[in-house]
Amino acid sequence: MALVYRWRKAHGLEYRNEVPNLVEKRLAEGWSTSKVVAIAAKTAVPVAAAAAPPHDVIDDAPPTRDELERKAAELRIKVDKRWSDKTLAERIEDALKG
Question: Domain containing 42: what range?
Answer without folding.
Answer: 2-51
